[in-house]
Amino acid sequence: MAIYPELKGRSVAITGAANGIGEVAAQSFAAQGATVYLLDIDGAGVERISAGLRGAGQKAQAVQLDITDEASVKQAFAAIETGGGLDVLINCAGGYGRLATIEDMDIGEWDRTVALNLRSVFLCSRAAIPLLKKSKAGRVINIASISGRTVHASSSPAYGSAKAGVIQFTRFLAHELGPHGITSNSISPLTTLTPRVAALRTPEQVEKIAAQVPLRRLATSEDHVATMLFLASDGAGFINGATLDTNGGRVMM
Ligand SMILES: NC(=O)c1ccc[n+]([C@@H]2O[C@H](COP(=O)([O-])OP(=O)(O)OC[C@H]3O[C@@H](n4cnc5c(N)ncnc54)[C@H](O)[C@@H]3O)[C@@H](O)[C@H]2O)c1
After folding, report:
1. Which tens digit of pLDDT belongs to each residue from 27-37?
2. Residue 223 contacts by C-beta under 8 Å, 6 or more apart in sequence?
3. What's the CA-to-centroid distance between 115 and ligand 1, angstroms?
4. Model pTM above 0.90
5. Could you confirm whether domain 5-192+220-245 is CATH 3.40.50.720?
6. Å from CA of 131 to ligand 1 middle
7. Which of 18, 82, 108, 152 could form a disulfide with 40 if both were Cys (CB 3.0 to 4.6 A apart)?
8. Which is the closest atom of ligand 1 to the Cα of 42?
């Protein structure tokens, strides 16, 4: 893992930090010496991970919230403000329940999926803006998906549409927050071998997906987290409104 000395002492909030990519992000930013706020609906999960990080001498604080709920998000960011402010917001939590078609999707599934993946990014970003404006190195990093870039990765139409919305919303953030010295970018991952995804796919399915990727493998959480660390670093300070395709070139196929 690259070391970015400037991240030491910065304050980083990560949603979805109890599992998968968000958990690896929390561990990696903590290892850089950042103060990490682990945000998740799974309060016990983030409390356990935070306690482990604190036990290793790192700075971590668990915050339980529902990112789709306006009042819950407000309360969480008020706690972060009381804790001393925020430099980096990583909107990582998201996902979808099942592979679906437009025809077989009911309105409830559509609304829940869009709320989890897009409404949440609006709510958390809006709540973070006053804190980020006080930072000298403000960053918003949104986790979109290759599903928001192209339709050939099988997923869910609600999920892909919401992730395309995340990519566009990131551009609005970049435009609005740029004058305050805050950059906003997104990352568009490919299927990532998190524990949850690895448990869902057979080795044959993994091989089939990997065969469609120019680099011939699926992503790891570390692939995305290396990009997040870079985007948070001073060297990435002039990248704004971009989506970085951490998908091994799959998006161009
Ligand atoms: N894993 C992949 O293959 C993959 C591929 C492309 C994009 N992504 C994106 O990367 C991000 C992380 O994916 P992952 O697979 O690591 O996720 P994951 O499912 O492993 O973890 C998601 C976390 O979000 C939390 N969460 C769910 N609903 C919440 C809510 N309402 N409020 C607060 N927290 C909530 C869960 O408790 C969980 O800890 C997501 O945005 C996902 O869409 C993942």
Report:
1. 999 999 999 99
2. 189, 192, 246
3. 13
4. yes
5. yes
6. 24
7. 18
8. 37
